[in-house]
Design a protein that fits this description.
Shape: flat
Number of domains: 2
Order of helices and strands: EEEEEEEEEEEEEE
Distance between the termini: 48 Å
Largest sheet: 3 strands, antiparallel
Radius of gyration: 21 Å
Helix content: under 10%
Length: 156
């Protein structure tokens, strides 16, 4: 079971309460000098925390979780959130176009794949070419077929 949430270790004799999401249940934790938490170094048991997050293990419970840095969330801190609460997937960045927050699908972390959709949730299935110039943003998703492919051939 993976616990996810935001947690900060305290120093000195001060105690802070933080909320943490554990499989859909909100729990208040009292974190102070007696807290038994360890930040794991190197290969973590969290399954690969992303975006600068650290893997944290509770020494008295069999739980590990990623300690996400803002604006990231998710069990691996893989989802970026916009100020309006929109989630941007696959490492895409949230941008403000002057009117709305939106996800910029050209900024995903996997540079070998391209994504589309409001949250950049749809992976490309084929790269397309329109006119003489080839744009990395011209592609099909959901098994679609391009009329003119990047290699110059027409689809059947």
């Amino acid at each position: 079971m993976t616990m996810r949430g935001f947690i900060k270790l305290t120093d000195g004799n001060r105690q802070k309460k933080k909320s943490m999401l554990i499989t859909g249940i909100i729990v208040l934790l009292s974190i102070g000098p007696s807290a038994s938490r360890a930040i794991l170094d190197g290969d973590d048991d969290c399954g690969g925390c992303q975006n600068g997050a650290s893997c944290v293990r509770d020494l008295h419970e069999p739980y590990v979780f990623c300690n996400c840095l803002l604006p990231f969330k998710g069990s691996l801190c893989e989802t970026r959130t916009c100020q309006d609460g929109r989630e941007c997937l696959n490492g895409s960045e949230c941008i403000f176009d002057g009117y709305h927050h939106k996800c910029d699908c050209s900024t995903t972390t996997d540079k070998k794949k391209y994504y589309a959709g409001l949250k950049c949730e749809h992976e490309s299935t084929e790269l397309c070419a329109f006119s003489e110039s080839v744009s990395k943003l011209d592609y099909c998703t959901n098994g679609g077929i391009c009329k003119l492919r990047v290699d110059g051939t027409n689809s059947a």
